[in-house]
Amino acid sequence: MELAIIAHDGKKAEMVNFLMKNIEKLRENNVEIIATGTTGSFVEQAGLKVTKMLSGPKGGDAQIAARVAEGKTHMVFFFRDPMGKHVHEPDINMLLRMCDVWNVPLATNPATASLLIDHLK
Ligand SMILES: O=C(CO)COP(=O)(O)O
């Protein structure tokens, strides 16, 4: 199953910590991780395998939204920074909307992501 991960700058360290903490469960369930560009680089540096899309502001969120619509991405962890403003807000909203249109599980914080991971097998 394909999991897309995205984290705004203030949340990237939290995303890496979260994935490291849950790596066994992800491996057991053959979860393949894709990510927006910079988030993916952080995760790679932590030693995890990840397929990188474009950076968020350059279209990465939009690419992941398309994968959700095409049925290729099955779950999304998007750790958003609720205090930040983003030039690509329309792309962010499109991704959130596609998750709702296609009923794809979406976690926007680690607490919800934990619940989703606990629900895998
Ligand atoms: O902007 C983002 C999500 O909206 C994240 O993109 P990056 O992972 O490339 O920083």
TrEMBL record:
PROSITE patterns associated with the record: MGS
Swiss-Prot/TrEMBL catalytic activity: dihydroxyacetone phosphate = methylglyoxal + phosphate
Listed GO CC annotations: cytosol
Residues covered by the MGS-like domain: 1-121
Enzyme Commission (EC) number: 4.2.3.3
Recorded superkingdom: Bacteria
Pfam families, sorted: MGS
Residue sites binding substrate per the record: 8, 12, 36-39, 55-56, 88
Gene3D superfamilies tied to this protein: Methylglyoxal synthase-like domain
Alphabetic keyword roster: Lyase
Active-site residues, Swiss-Prot/TrEMBL: 61 (proton donor/acceptor)
NCBIfam families: PRK05234.1
PANTHER family membership: METHYLGLYOXAL SYNTHASE
UniProt function note: Catalyzes the formation of methylglyoxal from dihydroxyacetone phosphate.
Family: Belongs to the methylglyoxal synthase family.
UniProt name for this protein: Methylglyoxal synthase
Native organism: Moheibacter sediminis
